[in-house]
Amino acid sequence: MNRIMGLDYGSVTVGVAISDALLLTAQGTEVIHRKQENKLRQTLARIEELIAKYGVDKIILGYPKHLNNTIGERAVKSEEFAEKLRQRTGLEVILWDERLTTVAAHQVLSQTRLNYEEKAKVVDKLAAVLILQGYLDMLSFQKKEEI
User: Fold this and answer.
1) What proportion of the chain, given as a percentage, has pLDDT over 70?
2) pLDDT tens by residue, 49-108
3) Mean pLDDT calculated for residue range 107-116
4) CATH value at residue 16
5) Total domain count for the chain?
6) Please, which contacts does 44-50 make with residues 24 or more away whose CB atoms are closer than 8 Å?
């Protein structure tokens, strides 16, 4: 069975998570850094490498809507990134409502003994895990409903 990739797309980083083969849990993989927001070639190339390495056949991309459900600049940039991912990889890319995901990631990290710099290095990866885990939980719930 193929795996699913979760991405938390930020202005200069992309947090990456990959599902297990049973599509039950999400594991943080890495944070991809870029020097400028619009420089995506190397970011897309790294995502392609990870897709090949893990046998990914679907991408869940965080979709940062505003709390009032409106679409802002970051959400538009995520839509554009989703289209680039579709064109480059040929995979299905699902935009997943990620409202409060980064807040939740910061709350989880506040419970740890990591210092600020250490937290900053992993918050995007954890946000990607939370995005992907939300999607996997929805899949699991749908399967239970079908029984």
Assistant:
1) 96
2) 999 999 999 999 999 988 788 888 999 999 999 999 999 999 999 999 987 676 677 777
3) 78
4) 3.30.420.140
5) 1
6) 44/84, 44/85, 44/88, 47/5, 47/7, 47/14, 47/16, 47/85, 47/88, 47/89, 48/88, 48/89, 50/5, 50/16, 50/18
Q: Is the separation of the CB atoms in 11 and 34 below 8 Å? A: no
- Give the alpha-carbon dihedral of 118, 121, 123, 125, to 10 degrees: -130
Encoded tokens for 56? 């990914």
* CA pair distance 53, 90, nearest whole angstrom: 16
Range of the domain at 124: 3-146
Cβ neighbours of 56 (radius 10 Å) = 20
pTM: 0.89
